[in-house]
Amino acid sequence: MMSKVLPVLFAFFVMGFCDIVGISSDYAAQAFGWSSTMASLIPSVVFVWFFLLGVPSGIMMNHIGRKNTVLLSMLITVVGMALPLIHYDSTTTLIAYALLGIGNAILQVSVNPLLQNVVTDEKLLTSSLTAGQVVKAISSFCGPFIMLFAVNTLGGGDEQRWYMAFPVLGAITLLSGLWLLATPIEREAQQNSNVTVGQTFALLKNPTILLLFLGIFFVVAIDVGINFTSSKVMIQRYGWEISEAGVAPQVYFICRTIGAFIGVFLMTKIADMTYFRLNIVACIVVILSLIFLQLPAMWALAQIGAIGFLCSCIFSIIFSMAVQAEPQKANLISGLMITAVAGGGAATPFIGFATDAAGSITAGIVVLLVCACYLTFCAFGVKPNKKV
Q1: Is 23 exposed, middle or buried (0-12, 13-18, 19+ CB in 10 A)?
Q2: How confident is the prediction along the chain (388 residues), in pLDDT tens digits per residue?
Q3: Which of 173, 127, 122, 132 has the alpha carbon at shortest distance from 14?
Q4: Triad 6, 220, 358: Cα angle to 5°
Q5: CA distance linking residue 165 with residue 24, whole number of Å
Q6: Rounded to whole angstroms, how far apart are CA atoms 53 and 60?
Q7: Which residue, among 345, 351, 112, has the nearest Cα to 229 in the 3D structure?
Q8: Of 164, 135, 133, whose CA–CA distance to 147 is shortest?
Q9: Surface-to-core class of residue 98, CB atoms within 10 Å of its CB (0-12 exposed, 13-18 middle, 19+ buried)
């Protein structure tokens, strides 16, 4: 089984490439002279595709299968990552971000249920999804290193050549696609291929599915939001340079990786919902401290890392609950839930606007607090009909 699980898990590494928008937005803003509001639109360019393509991708997956859908997503990503090598300016950079978002949206819809094709024990599904999030978190942690490699090695130390990170991401994606292509994975039983977009969104009439849909929206908003703001906290509050501030998202992602890794084991001992509730309440406390306490820089990094640790397993818990609610509609629910990943692009414009309006990144962090408050409502409001 592991020979089939490993290439699927490696696809989760490609999924993490969207998180490079946080640190790369700092370089792009510097290169093109963008304001905080303009830079905040970069995550929107990436994550809006989750809203537009989530459900259609789930429907397409019914027709062509999960594995083929994953391979298509990787092809789109490779094409996008090659664009800046052909011509580099602000327009092609935004197109490259858009293609990264399109590929990643399709990937996230298809790779989560593809795990079900190779992990047959339903009791291991949440742990398997969390293991995928560990791999994704490792990828996210590597983002600042990829940026530094692109600037210092491929770009000869010229920060204007930060875009050389794109072909690195493309090469890794190509490797992942070839590995998966060479791996025989039995296609899942074909689901209803006549389902429409309207019928898929009609699943939101189920109160539990609706709560979980919004839960995905807001947990991704926190994830992308803290990735986007963490380096800016260090720059604005402590006067760090961009190259120094890159350590903040690294701290966030390494703590998220550790949290997801620990969660894989803890959730075999603790009910998923209990784990969710404990972590989100603690997360609110940490966000409040980041807003109101002006602590030394190392403490600020610890607060950023704590948010990553506490939120690391929430996505996989919510996603698993949604799929298990109606397993016969797993493809469609996957597409619907990934549509909610657009929350990552919806939050950052509010963060950027609040930051510019108040002249302080603290105002942007308040947006993250609002997201965490909804997740608390979700954690205590969902009434699962299974042991989760």
Answers
A1: buried
A2: 677 888 998 999 998 888 777 677 778 778 888 776 777 777 778 878 888 888 888 888 888 888 999 999 999 999 999 998 888 888 888 899 899 999 998 998 888 888 878 876 666 666 677 778 788 878 877 877 888 888 888 888 777 788 888 899 999 999 999 999 998 888 776 665 566 778 788 888 888 899 999 999 999 899 888 888 898 899 888 988 877 887 888 898 889 889 888 887 887 788 888 899 999 999 999 999 999 988 899 999 999 999 999 998 898 889 888 877 777 777 778 778 878 877 877 888 888 888 888 888 889 899 999 999 999 999 998 775 544 4
A3: 173
A4: 145
A5: 9
A6: 10
A7: 351
A8: 164
A9: middle
* Amino acid code (one letter) for 337: M
Residue 348 contacts residue 228 (beta carbons within 8 Å)? yes
**What span, in angstroms and rounded, lies between the C-alpha atoms of 216 and 199?**
20
| Residue 169 burial class via C-beta count within 10 angstroms: exposed 0-12, middle 13-18, buried 19 and up | buried
The tokens for 353 are: 């606007």
**What separation in angstroms does the CA of 41 have from each of 17, 93, 215, 374?**
17, 13, 22, 23
Q: Tell me the CA distances in angstroms from 271 to 115, 183, 278, 386, one per residue in order.
A: 21, 34, 11, 10
Phi, psi of 383 (to 5 degrees): -115, 85
C-alpha to C-alpha distance for 46 and 167, rounded to whole angstroms: 17
What is the DSSP secondary-structure string of 276-299? HHHHHHHHHHHHHHHHH----HHH
DSSP letter string over 96-124? HHHHHHHHHHHHHHHHHHHHHHH---GGG
Residue 258 exposed, middle or buried by CB count within 10 Å (0-12, 13-18, 19+): middle
78, 177 in Cβ contact below 8 A?
yes
CB-CB contact of 27 with 164 (8 Å): no
In angstroms, the CA 159 to CA 152 distance is 8
